[in-house]
Amino acid sequence: MNYAMDRTTVVIRTAPRTKLTAADHADVTFEVDEIDRRTRSGWSVLVRAVAEEVGPEHRADIVARTEATGVTPWAPGEHGRWLRLIPTSVTGRRIVPGELPPAVDPRAYLRAAATGAGRSGLRRRDTATPARQTTPPATASAGGTSSSSSHDSRTTSGGTR
Amino acid sequence: MAAEEAAPTKQEIPVDECHRLLAGQEIGRLAVNAEHHRWSSP
């Protein structure tokens, strides 16, 4: 259902004599989410609240603020009742996508150019230096000891004071 | 060496950001526990 916010209170509208009007003073939960199928990520927010139907017993400013949200139900039919969902807790979770590999690995192109598979000498010359970078260090996949000692030696030589 | 793919992570959203996200949407789902009846909106 559609809703609007009055500060931290969720405002919805409903018809008389529906199940929702029975929710007056009831515990409710209200959930909002958004997903991105492409990155397989998203978030959801869950509001635990007490529902309260807005009526003449409410202060005028509460009624005015509620109606000022301008919630207009998308669903057809009568929706004369206003419900405020007064939160008792608000929690949210998010799934952050991992870093995806590039669609095209640029090293694949550079490798092809360096081996003469490129279409022109110009490209072969341009890629001469990067092509060397594509060669993984002998210690890169050899485990932590060799790799870290290589890193340490670079750090030491560059960081001498 | 192929580029490594980092795994997705799950994070808790701070309350103030929850409110900001709520304010930016229009549609939600409501579940009610009233008079011993449970009901949820489509």
From TrEMBL, chain A:
Top-level taxon: Bacteria
User: Which residue stretches belong to region Disordered?
Assistant: 115-161
Task: Enumerate the Pfam families for this protein.
Answer: Pyridox_ox_2
Renumbered to this chain, the Low complexity biased-composition regions fall at 128-161
Per its record, how is this protein called by name?
Pyridoxamine 5'-phosphate oxidase
Species source reads: Geodermatophilus amargosae
UniProtKB/TrEMBL annotation, chain B:
State the superkingdom: Bacteria
Q: What is this protein called?
A: Uncharacterized protein
**Source species of the chain:** Geodermatophilus amargosae
